[in-house]
User: Fold these one by one.
Assistant:
Number 1:
Amino acid sequence: MFEKKKMSQVAVAKSQPSQSKVTAKRKYNFMLLMLCMPGLACLIIFKYLPMFGIAIAFKKYVPIKGIFGSNWNGLDNFKFFFGSQDAVRTIRNTVLYSVEFLVLDLVLGVLIAVLLYNLKSKIGLKIYHTVILFPRFMSVVIISFLVYAVLSPSAGLANQIITFFGGEGISWYSEVKYWPAILSIVYIWKSIGAGCLYYYAALTGIDPTLFEAAEIDGASAVQKAWHVAIPELVPIMVMMTILGIGNLFSGDFGLFYQVPRNIGLLYDATDIINTYTYRALLGGELARSAAVGLFQSAVGFVLVVVTNAIVRKVSPENSMF
Amino acid sequence: MKKKKISAGQIALHVFFILLCICYIYPLLILVTASFEGASNPQFSLRIQEFTLDAYRQVFANPAKILKGYGVTAFYSVSATFGSLVVMTLFAYAISKRDFKYRNVLTFLLFFTTLFNGGLVPTYLVNSKLLHLNNTIWIYILPSLMNAWNVIVLRTFFQGLPDSLYEAARIDGASELRICFQIVIPLATPALASVGFLAFINHWNDWYTCSIYVREPDLYSLQYILKVILDDVAYLQEMLANGTIAGLEESLKNLESLRFAMAVVLAGPMLFVFPFFQKYFAKGLTIGSVKG
């Protein structure tokens, strides 16, 4: 108590600072503000300026008149999208794939991390992890080359295997029904190496005596994983799920556009909101594309804010804001 | 008895991972063997029916466009990575200071961009109709200088440095600018390396920016060239026929091999280099997972 009082007296004394201290503080703030300037300029020009351009979503855009010269048309651009069958298809695909990828990431990420953790050979660990992390360094264009090498109807690996076993080759790029599975496999193939890193890092942080105690009690490797390792991973699994729910409404553009090679026949299984807005932009439908983009941004915003509010209730130290 | 059981488990693990690795390596090997395939009716597999270097001869007969692609991509990847590290470090340093007057405002302005954005079309209009960055090299560099997530990672790192460090420097009379450049940045090298490495990969692998903003073939990025080659055989022919080569179909029975040779030449070298920097990747994840 005494200490505190003394402190507050000092603070009172300090609250009437000399002129030079005020200028020093001012100079300090000015200096730091100057350091921020280049970054602030980038934010304003490239992030905030486009937000005003959202007006285009409510206009009948005529390129010569510009955004602000074009006439308002209310919600017509939105009505056009929601009235078309594209709305159902893109929203359904975006959300369903997001949910599926979230589950795959969770289950397989934990599985691979636990298996890597159980490897005793350090060299093996390094080699295997380097290999499965490799796709993280590839562009989606190269990945689509690889997919093409497997699925090419005349020369691809998949049809070679099918015909070897006496089956009939499938023309993969024109059959919608296979694409949900193909995209899921490609997704998990390319992202599991990076995805399991979070869980692996968490596993290496577990107190080893927990495992030793379990071993003395006669637990098998599987039992140790199930009863010791996985409960320790639950907090991070919960976090990843919540973050994933925040991103439910946007998909991996490269995967859905480049891997199916933008083939119209496959849109029923491959078209998501991101690919739709991109195609509408390249097709010159700027106002309609912007309307769909705004819808996506707005729903995404609500999802992130809501999930963050939940995180703040469950574990405040993990909330983003 | 027990020891034997454990090793059986280990063997099973190794078998599993070796099978898994084959799923990763096999398609890459096919990509390479397909580029050496000379047969007119090829099957993609490890076995080459008619070995030939013709595809590579074609590719290197007129390398100007490929070299240009490499030049453009290397230039913007290096300058964008370096530029964004400078811009982001300065910003992150300032908002890491608890006694900085405008800290909360600036942090909010930064953070809000991760929650909401104008979307593809408004961004496109600003970049191309207002700033006229389309069809210039700047479109690859300027819009990506500030990445909010990376700034947050750097800020978190700076906040983790001990206060005594700053106090000591301040007592010695160092200015804020000097503290930032001579003390903090050298200490932040690991964080900067991992953020920079990830940024570099993203720039190097970028085909999206090019596909929206660039219609000038001399400014195509490597990955966009690759994308066009995969989508469009005519472009491939045009690209190679500019030189002295006549009648592509005569000289090459297998156009497919040319595509794959292009893929190897355009994407191969960097794919060999990147994994050596893998440690920065893992580090970046662990730094990023600490939120503040």
Number 2:
Amino acid sequence: MRNPLRTTHFFYKLNTQYSSPLKWHITGDSLLKIISALFASSVLLFLGLMVYELVNGSWLSIQTFGLNFLIGTKWDPAISQVFGALPLILGTTVTSVIALLISVPISLGIGLALSEYMPKKFGFAISFLVELLAAVPSVIYGLWGIYVLIPFLRDHVYLYLRTFFGFIPIFSGPIYGGGFLTASIVLAIMVIPTISSILRDLFSAVPNSLREAMIALGATKWETVKAVVSYARSGVIGAVILGFGRAVGETMAVTMIIGNKFQVWPSSLFDAWYTMSAIIANELLEATYDLYVSALINIALVLLFVTLVINILSRLIVWRSIRLVRGIVKE
Amino acid sequence: MVVPKIKVENLNAWFGKKHVLKNINMEIKENTVTAIIGPSGCGKTTFLRCLNRMHEIIPGARVSGKVIFNGINIYDKGVDPVIIRKKIGMVFQKPNPFPMMSIYDNVAIGLKLNGVRDKKALDTAVRQSLELVNLWDEVKDDLNRSGANLSGGQQQRLCIARALAVEPEVLLMDEPCSALDPISTAKIEALIRRLTENYTIVIVTHNIQQAARISDYTAFFYLGELIEYGPTKQIFENPKHELTRKYIMGEFG
Amino acid sequence: MRKLDHYKFRVFKDHIMRFLVYLSLVLVLIPLFSILYEVVKRGISVISLDFFIKPTPTVGEEGGIANAIQGTFITIGLASLIGVPIGLMSGIFLSEYNEHKLSVIVRFFNDVLSGIPSIVIGVFIYTLIVRSIGFSVIAAAFALAIIMIPIVTRTTEEALKLVPLSLREAAIALGLPRWKIIPTIVLRSARKTVVTGILLSIARIAGESAPILVTMGYWRWWFAGLDRPVANLALNVFIFATSPFESWRALAWGSALVLILIILGINIAVRIIMREKSW
């Protein structure tokens, strides 16, 4: 019997040669590789171009002020045309640090609840809700902050704090409701999803043998959990740094809440302040002359530099620790 | 003397530093079924995958030696593995139809992606391939349904049809029945016998009885080496090597 | 006796910590529900049919957010047109040429790029594009595309890596070259997850306002060409949040509601798609 399939020659030309006649497959494969590699490299192009453009754009400011830009405390576009960013750098740093002080313990709690305490099925729903919190746009946090959080904090928290602790300077002074403490609280809510989801993944990657060993020693749940956290501690640090990076760059919600007051140091926790990102959002469109624009781009450059360092650092730590944790699983 | 369909010369294979195939020499004759047997981990699957250059797709895997197919060493420079795999098809241990495709597309995809646009030609090929594996009558009304809904035995026959549709000359089968029930296994074994009319088949099996039932030639592998190779009848009735005898008697593995 | 007391203390501490862990869940859910509740409550009270068919009002006029909805969709559409192909191809490269040295570098800097604040990306596009062609929807689209690329890249890579090896092997054994296997077999198997990633990146850029502000500025009219700005929902929220007129503040809440619904809708859709995954 003849092969019925091989009689149907109208399929495609039978190649008696085994090397590609037109080199089509080889070219097709390498073409896909080259094209996808080019697209993939665009990330490097964007980052490189970003650094170049921002350095280029802030060149005038760098030439004019040099390092004084970072330690100058005066921002006077109207008369003397002097720009110093120290108050902004302080405002950004302090609000972000306070945000972390609030969000890290809560994120640890959430990470542990999802990886250690809750049944998987229920944890799935909670994860979804936490992710939803990350999906809420920054401006909506700002809007909610202005109309819901500020009145609440002013009437139910800040007034009492001042009444009872007013003798301590940081709890005295006028209460607007907005201000840098409120901004920090909103920032804290915004970075919780970032930190907690990394922590959840990190803790889940910790090998079960560690938990079993602790339980076998007669440890309580909390003692077991403590061992898990300490096992993954370098990753926890990475996650915290990453959260700091998010908080530093956050713009709209902060702009709407912090009060946008250019000063080196606030008089109390209830005082207004300013951040790097907020001043760009507020003034870039209104900057009327080159040096002014250049100073604002210079701030963006500082922000880029800070977030680049933070990200590279934290990614390295998180990557390494997850690999470390997983590597030990294998052995 | 018949020219062998595939001639293996000094074939060695590695996974990283692990030497999994050692100096294999073997001739596979046209229109026969050759069974590869041996305990697990003896390199039989690796050997099979070396015959159509599937071994090298695993990162860290390496091959040396020659596999001469139709007079051409498939490991020669300039030989396109893609064309080799079209000529030497493969069926896997676990049925793996493409789950997102219909039954029709599962069979036709090889031709479609090789540039066959003619609807009639595709229809004919799909029908002939499915008839060849005795699946046509069972699925002809459900050609547009997903292949994932078929039973395990049907899925495996679908995979064989998919491999046949691209017109291979050799079919490599890697324990094709290990995931199937006895009835499906019997159907596939009958199918394999029938296919020898037009195809050369190399089948890896861990089931010694299966090798005895369906193969013309049997090769026994042990720890990466080819211990014994010859007509099935001789291997089973009068093995030359002590290891072969022990394995066939079920004394180890 | 002392030993027992110590044990009691440990158990007590265990209970306290369990309580605190669950408390943290409650603490994080309060703002979420408060935001959803307030936006829906205040948003619903201001919307009407007019609200969806009229553009931004001028002083003393009644108006709506129709132009902002139009503008948001145009901006997102353009951004996706730029960002999705780049993200898809990058994801394919990272997953299919995993062993390549470039993959490691790209994967790392892709993560780094996703951590750059959106305002910085906005200023970058401001210096790169706005200063030569002016505030425009095309500039905004570029900024948003750069934000979405790392997300699409990452999820595409993860999705493609989940495609079982057995499917790839089946395709390879059919004598198909890689460049045909990837778009047909691999991408098609993973298409649900890939689409999910694209949808999530769209949800992310839909709410971005900082880069919109510095690349497009504020615009009260309809779409008027790619080299001109368009209105934007998120920016509406920012601009009108503290405006002196009641009817303008309504624009902020209405825009916020529509935004939240879009983003919530996408997130829920993604969950539903993922639930019917085939593996």
